[in-house]
Queue: 4 jobs
Job 1
Amino acid sequence: MVKHQISLLNVQHDSIARPTATRMVCKYAGMNQRAAADMLGYGTGASIAYQLKRLRSEMGDDKKKAG
């Protein structure tokens, strides 16, 4: 069980902050998606998977715009 919870519920729906926080928690805190969901206030690990997919999509769009 995660001791601390970070709420990103007040962040705008289309903000890139939620998927970015998700990526950082999974990558640098070494958490699996279920633990990251608990920490970030998401309902399920599937929500994390969606956020990670969204981040990859946004990053891909930025690369296309820059290139």
Job 2
Amino acid sequence: MHTNITEINAVVASSANFVQPLSIPSLQSFAIPTLHACIPRAGFLPPQDSTITKECADLARLLIAAGIIDTASIPEHATTVHEVLEFGLMSWFNANVGNLKALEVRVEILRPRSMQALIENATDDDYYGEFDREVTGAFGIQFNGDSGWNPYTVSEAAMSTELVAPGLFKAAMAAIKDAASISVPIRTAEFALGDFQGQWENWGEVKLPCDDEVLETLRDRFEDEATAQEYLPSVLLPILGGDLCLTSLVPKKDRLTLKQLTGYAKSGADLDVRAIASQVLNLRHAIKVANREQARLPNLEGLNVNPIEPGCSLIYQFDQRVFAAFDDHYKSSMSDGTADEMFGLDDLPNDPLELKSYFERLSLALAVLNEMDILISMIAKPHYMQD
């Protein structure tokens, strides 16, 4: 049985009568419940402080007015404003996020004081330098990763797919790369290649070096001939998947056209090829719609930091050198203050129409997330790492 709108309004209205200041600033956050069974619940509800209760009552009223919280989704036993928010937002996210299999994501709603403290901490001049993220005093929404370092490998699907449908696997990886820029970061072979280019002193170059161009550099770096040989371009590129996984190595003229991709979807060599091609088309359509509406999940723009936790790690095959590169990137980015473990952070609008529009765009970005997760699950297998 559901609580009716009159009862919900009574709960929200009564909660808004308390106006007492907090005595101690807090970074406690109201966390939206788990998005799917594989993700543990993150954070915890704020304590029943009167100021927090009033803030949450204001947010609940706003979300109901914007049509984000469907009052029919609130069960009868929800007797506090925190429960109205919890069940209402859980219902919205469950309706917009599928049963994610490969990607690992957490979402939190941050109260205004927490939002302000988080931004001020993440943009401290002594640590991050100047910043341009405005502190508005509004509620915030934060997306985080959750142990996305466990890798998924794609070598099996890459080889079998390219054998019968040339270019299809490359198209899948390119679509995933585009989707990650809208939704959540994916740790791919491109990140490892960047680290290796640093070791080759070839950083940022489009053309990769030959072995004899970097051998002496590697010998100086490692002071060991055997190790230097292990990091030669001809040795590492196959481990990274070559142009199957390194989309930057595929010239535009060699990429599949929409007509070719549609052909694979309709009449590919086998069921797997048709399914992968169809899913690439689904993902590309979701990306197109999201881009048209300028939809994206919260990012770290304006905070002068980059997300360091991936939604998942997607590599060609497991190799310790690849994960050593990931680890080096993580340590250096965290130590120099250029990275943060959250994916992104947004202010929630405090106008019902603007809030409705924000959640509509958020829904489009989550559609990209869903379609990307489906595609990754089709072409990748988990490689469970030992602690």
Job 3
Amino acid sequence: MNRQVYMEDKATFFTIKELLRAGRLDEAEKAVLELLDKEPKNCNYKLLLAEVLFKKGGIEKAERLCQEILTHLPNDSYALKLRGKILLNRGTKKALKEAVEIFTYLFRQSQTPVLLYWLLLAYIKAKRPKAAWELLQSVPFSLQDNIHIRRLKGRILISLGRYEEALTVYELLHKENPEDVWLKKQILLLKKHLKGEDKWEKEIQAIGRLPSAKRDVTLLLTQADMARKKGRMEEAISLYEQVLKIAPDNWEANLNLGFLLVKTEDEVKIDAGIERLKQFFLRDPYDHPVRSALFAALKRRDRLQDLLAILEEALRRHPQKVKIYGWIKRYEKMVEFDNQESESRSQDSEG
């Protein structure tokens, strides 16, 4: 390869990394496939493809590509890091143990904030908060002084039962990042734990009566969760709807509203809940709570044909998720059986 082509492809490589960081996965996949057409054996390009597949939910294909690279380059840091992320995603005890080993090795090779983050996260997921805390104590403060690692520090302290210290960490972070909804919610939940549920709920209700609370998404979500857990479903639905008027793309409100609507007795509300859950299912067909609620609602509404259509759409979007084939076959049989039953009843009535 001449120098000009090499520099062009190198620039394309970093462009793809930027696309990945921006979440523009389809563009990234198209670009990396073009690179692989030129150099089908290029390991860096294969790893880029594996990363794209991983972020798009194609875990099995990403893992196979990653393993293929590691067979030839067992110490490649890019491949090992991606392998570690895949293992964290799998979440089994064996996978998490291996993820800890990988990130420990990588961190020893290069002590960077990014690798510190992934090693701490591996310890947390492996339920080893003490090891995570000991690691934090052993590294320079400059290495851990960023918002992502400080968030993990809060999680570690909670796992260790040191709630007041965790609250201090989150409150300081929230002071520096006042628009961070996740931090605000963690602070509310910690105060609930420290003050006791009854006292905490009274405080939340008192705050909720203030005029400023009407557009506070975090507070509205907290009130909605309280109502849902107490069985006050209509109140919870109303609160989630208020959130969505302020923040239409709020993931938590959309999902929980979908779950609540499909449990009602109102057919219009059930169908509205189906539409919400359908969007989440199409993003991740392997999300069991979403799939279970969606399928149950569609069967309850006698909409098996619609269920099949949703499954076929999911398969088009996620051809690597092989379980969908089995679900399609199962519901095709149910539709066929229902059709036969209908024909039989029709013939009986004619006779």
Job 4
Amino acid sequence: MKRISRPLDTRGTILALERLYSMAQDLGIDPMLHLEEVGLLSSDEAPAGALANTRMRGLLAGFHERV
């Protein structure tokens, strides 16, 4: 996997998570349990910018609905 050398914005984070989700499934790993656990630890604050309604906690908890 290519190393990311700069911080990701929300869109970049979503794209990276989609790739990780797909890779995990290809390896027979159910990524939802892990995403939900991390989601519980994640911020529920709205970020600034175009995707201001996309809170990381909700994004991770409902990620399987996006893929």
